[in-house]
Design a protein that fits this description.
Order of helices and strands of chain B: HHHHHHHHHH
Number of domains of chain B: 2
Number of strands of chain B: 0
Number of strands of chain A: 0
Number of domains of chain A: 2
Number of helices of chain B: 10
Oligomer: heterodimer
Order of helices and strands of chain A: HHHHHHH
Helix content of chain B: 55-70%
């Protein structure tokens, strides 16, 4: 928190940066009043550098995605269309919330990596799709970066794109597993496509949810 | 006589002294791996799954499935293993039945009329290998051993912090979710499953929103407390052992030999030619 509030009013800071081209010294946080000795302040504007609060948010939301998925499976059963699409929708919405909260390049890839490693450690699943999932997360990050990382529609579209590419990766692994008799893959492919419908449902629900989180003050901008 | 004062009764966990790390069977290096072999199991689970995808000879896959069954039979209850195999083959049977109604690409049926069951054996063996290794990993590695291994594996901070937070918070959220579910059911007057089917939008306000708000508030307070404690990942852990202690190295060599044998069975003609050239 000491480092997070480096600027008292980020909007004023942004206006000043836009006007004079650099951050005015008078608006920067003065660490001398609180810190006993010199210590390096993290560069909060660095696109790649994650602060501790960013990392904690990534970990907590990855855990929440896993726990909510488990809860929906326990409540609704694992292999029905409602459960599959709801679970996917919740996970995609949580990814959108995370990307709106932590606006740094690589957030989605890091969250996907942490989620996959958690699944692998807890249930030994998801290791086969991890490389393709990371690739899809990086493509989604590039999309968000070029479409505008502060635009909500870009973040939502990027996360849905990532979800759809993840489903495509799952289909690839399924077809690779049953490559000798590809007809066996079709029943599983129908399940994967049903869960991909959840990604499209997230397109409808995510904007309302983000609006609520903005009102509650958890997301700014 | 009070039951709490009887000689030989179980010690109270709240007042008992903390366990000595050197007498704890999980951490005592004299008992072999301090992580219950978790890194070894992780490595084998990943390696065997990838190898199963790579292999396409039924002999090699059968050898790999046999090894995975032997590996898991010592670590998983036989009844659980039998149930898991029963479920797997039932699911594959359903897939086979479904596939029987789909015509093969290019017209006609591959392998004669009907479905080629011989071709369906290879996917079944692949899935069985992954399932056996996953069961061995999950059923015989406590979460504390996995966390200890992650702490000792010297992962970079951007990966280590969220991973350890996620592993810790999954259990917290799983224990909190029933309360949220009960609150939603009390509000709607019907089970969660029925609400999800009849009015799924109610799940939004009653189920997901409270959990997300709680998670984001937890993340903020967790980050604050970590900063206040001056988190430095290098100083967090009291113990940093190698990921593969000496007791595990022999198991690692045996496992690598088993995986190598499967590869040798797959490429047996090339191996035989090499051996013939070496000895002739």
């Amino acid at each position: 928190m000491l480092f997070t509030f480096a600027y008292a009013f980020p909007a004023d800071r942004d206006k000043a940066v836009a006007k004079i081209g650099h951050s005015p010294k008078s608006m920067e946080y003065e660490p001398k009043a609180f810190a006993p000795g010199p210590f390096p302040l993290p560069d909060e504007n660095a696109a790649w550098r994650f602060t501790l609060s960013d990392l904690a948010a990534i970990g907590v939301l990855a855990a929440l995605a896993r726990a909510t998925g488990l809860m929906l499976v326990f409540a609704l059963g694992g292999m029905n269309p409602v459960s599959l699409s709801l679970r996917t929708m919740v996970i995609t919405v949580l990814f959108i919330v995370l990307r709106m909260k932590v606006r740094r390049f690589g957030t989605l890839a890091l969250a996907a990596l942490v989620g996959s490693m958690t699944s692998f450690l807890a249930m030994a699943q998801g290791i086969m799709t991890l490389p393709l999932l990371l690739a899809s997360a990086l493509i989604a990050e590039l999309f968000i970066t070029y479409a505008g990382r502060n635009r909500a529609w870009a973040v939502i579209a990027g996360c849905v794109l990532m979800g759809l590419m993840d489903k495509a990766a799952s289909l690839c692994v399924i077809f690779l597993t049953v490559r000798e008799e590809t007809r066996m893959a079709w029943p599983l492919a129908i399940l994967v496509m049903t869960s991909a419908a959840g990604d499209l449902l997230a397109l409808a629900f995510a904007p309302r949810f983000i609006r609520e989180l903005r009102h509650a003050g958890f997301i700014n901008g | 006589m009070r039951s709490g004062s009887r000689a030989g009764s179980k010690p109270d966990p709240l007042t008992a002294p903390p366990a000595d790390p050197l007498t704890d069977p999980l951490t005592d290096p004299r008992n072999g791996s301090p992580y219950c072999g978790a890194p070894l199991k992780l490595l084998f689970a990943a390696g065997a799954s990838v190898l199963a995808l790579w292999l396409n000879s039924w002999q090699a896959l059968a050898v790999l499935a046999l090894f995975s069954l032997l590996w898991s039979s010592g670590r998983v209850k036989p009844s659980l293993l039998a149930k898991a195999h029963l479920f797997l083959f039932a699911a594959l049977g359903v897939c086979l039945l479904g596939a029987a109604y789909i015509p093969a690409p290019g017209g006609g049926m591959r392998g004669g009329p009907g479905l080629s069951v011989r071709m369906a054996v290879l996917p079944a063996l692949r899935v069985a290998v992954s399932m056996n290794m996953a069961l061995a990993l999950v059923m015989s590695s406590p979460a504390s051993a996995l966390s200890r291994f992650i702490a000792a594996a010297k992962l970079p901070d951007p990966l280590f912090v969220p991973l350890s937070v996620a592993l810790r918070f999954v259990a917290v959220f799983v224990s909190e979710l029933p309360q949220v579910k009960d609150a939603l059911e009390a509000r709607t007057g019907e089970p969660l499953a029925r609400t999800a089917l009849s009015r799924p939008w109610r799940l939004w306000r009653g189920f997901l929103a409270p959990m997300v708000f709680r998670a984001l508030a937890s993340a903020d307070s967790l980050a604050l407390s970590l900063e206040m404690k001056g988190l430095r990942s290098k100083s967090l852990f009291w113990k940093r052992a190698g990921a593969f202690p000496a007791a595990d190295r022999a198991r690692l060599a045996r496992g690598a030999a088993a995986l190598g044998l499967c590869l040798a069975v797959q490429y047996r003609e090339a191996v035989a030619a090499l051996a013939f050239r070496a000895f002739a």
